Amino acid sequence: MRLILLLLCAFITVVSFSTSVRAQYLEQEFTESTLPEDLRAFDVPDDAGRSIGLSWKVSPGDAHDVDFIVYISRSKDGPWQEAARIMSTTSYKSDAPEIFGFRKKQQNFHFVAIELRKVFPEAGNEEDKKAPYYFKLAVAKGNNIVEFDEVVSARAKGNWFNLSKLNNLIIMVVFSGLVLFFISHARRHPGMFVRKISGLDAVDEALGRATEMGRPVLFVHGLTPVGSISTLAAINILSRIATRVAEYDTVLKVVNNDPIVLTVSQEVVKESYLEAGRPDAYNQDNVVMVASEQFSYVVAVSGIMTRERTAANFFIGFFYAESLLLAETGASTGAIQVAATDSYTQLPFFITTCDYTLMGEELYAASAYLAREPMLLGSLRAQDIGKAVIIAALFFGTVLSSVGINFVTQLFVGF
Known about the structure:
Layout: H1 2-33, E1 40-43, E2 51-57, E3 67-73, E4 81-87, H2 97-100, E5 109-115, H3 116-119, H4 126-130, E6 133-141, E7 144-147, E8 152-154, H5 166-188, H6 198-213, E9 217-221, H7 229-248, E10 252-256, H8 259-275, E11 287-289, H9 294-308, E12 312-316, H10 322-332, E13 336-341, H11 347-353, E14 356-359, H12 362-371, H13 374-402, H14 407-411
Parallel strand pairs: 9-10, 9-12, 10-11, 12-13, 13-14
Antiparallel strand pairs: 1-2, 2-5, 3-4, 3-6, 6-7, 6-8
Helix pairs in contact: 5-13, 6-7, 7-8, 7-12, 9-10, 12-13
C-alpha cells in the first residue's frame, strides 16, 4: 500500500514539474519570438475621435494558432479588460490604406483600431474624450496566455478635415474649374466646336421632309416619370424640336403616358411656339396623354402613326419592351425615325429600325448641341475633357500597375 502511495505521489510530482516546465518554456518561447516590438498607441485619424489605434511589428512567432489580446484600462495600473483579440497572422497596416497609404512596408506592422464606445459606453462624453486610455498586449496559444509588461497610452481626438478624402476634393475642384473655364470660353466664342452628332444633324432634315409632305411630326416620350434624367433630357430636346416645327409651320404631335410629363410638355411646346413668334399655331390637343399602361400606350401610339402617316418620328427617353413595336410600326409607314435613349437594353432595336440613333450620353448632350447655350456647351466640353483624363488614367494606370507601380490607381481611390 505504501509503495502505491509513493508511486502516486511521485507521478503527481513529475506531472506538476513537467507542467511548470512546459508553462515556463511556452512563456519563454512567447517572450523571445512573439514579443511585440515598436508597440505604439495613437488616435485614429478622420474618425471624429471615436477610436484609438495600436500598431506593432510583425514577429517570426506569428502563427495561425497564436492570438494577440489587447487589454485596455483607464489607469496605468489597471484594472484591465479585454478590448480585442486577433489572430497573429491577420490585421495589418496594409489593410487600412485610407490611414497608412499603399506602401508595401505597411505589411510589416499589425494594426488594431479600438472603438472606445464599445468598451466604455460613456466614452462619447467631452470629458472622457480628453482622458488618456492605456493599453497592453498579451499572447495566447490555446489556454496559455502571456501578458507583456509594456504599457502605452493615447488620447482620442476629433479632426476638422478628413485627409483620406483629399484626392476627392482635388478632383472636384479641378473639374469645377474646368466647367467654369469652358462656360466662360463658350460665352466669348459662341461657335465653340462640339463633336458632330449625326442624329441631331438629321433633325432639320426630318422636319423639312415632313413640311414638304404636309404630314405631321410625332414626338414619343419614354415611359419614365418627370423625375428621370432621361425624361428631363427628352423635354429639353422637345423644346428645340417644337421651336423648329413652329418656324416651319408644321403640325407637331406629342404623346405621353404620365400626367405630369404631359403638363410639362404642354407648357414647353407652348413656350416654344411663343419663342418662334407663332403662339396662334399652338394647339393644346396635339400634346396628349394616350394611355398610362405600357402596351396600351404602344397600341395607341401605333394607331396614331398608322392613321396620321407621320413623316418624322422622334423616340426620345427611356424605353422598355415597347421600343421595337413602336419603331417597327414607324418604319412601316416610311417615316424618318430618330431615336435617343440611355436604355442600353433597347439600343439594338432602335439601331436596326431607326434611321439615326443617339446612344447613351448623347441623349444628354443633345440639348446643348441644339441650343448652343454657353452654360450647356461649357459643361459639355468640360465633361468631355474629364472623360479624356479618366480614360488616360485608366490606360496608364493599367500599364503601370502591370509592372508594380500603383500610384495612379491610388490617386482615384474613394475611401
